[in-house]
Amino acid sequence: MFIIGDLIIAVAKILDIVLEVYKWVVIIAALISWVNPDPYNPIVRFLHAVTEPAFRPTRRLIGYRLGPIDISPLIVILVIIFTQLFLIKSLIKLGYKLGGG
């Protein structure tokens, strides 16, 4: 049973790292959007391609903008933090209960 516990812990930690990296990508994309970047820049295109799939449903749910400010990056970051604090920690605790670690 300890193998399953170790597997759950490993998956949870990898998912936590992926979410942390994505959170920083969202922050960078939001900051870059403030300076009106060149849309043909490869970095800007990458950031747009990676973050737009998360922003699009958020904008559909809450509306595109709140006044002049696009709050979809903030909502995405809050969802990521909630996932890290709830789902990831719960998976790690479950892994330890199953004998992992």
Task: Looking at this protein, list some descriptive labels.
3 helices, mainly alpha, 101 residues
Q: What is the residue-mean pLDDT, rounded to a whole number?
A: 91
Total domain count: 1
- Strand composition percent: under 5%
The profile of the biggest β sheet is: none
Could you explain the architecture of this structure?
With 101 residues, the chain is mainly alpha-helical. It is elongated and about 50 Å long. It has helices at residues 2-33, 42-62, 72-97. α1 packs across α2 (42-62), α1 runs antiparallel to α3 (72-97) and α2 crosses α3 (72-97).
Provide a concise account of the structure shown.
With 101 residues, the protein is mainly α.
Summarize the helices and strands and which ones pair or pack.
Blueprint: H1 2-33, H2 42-62, H3 72-97
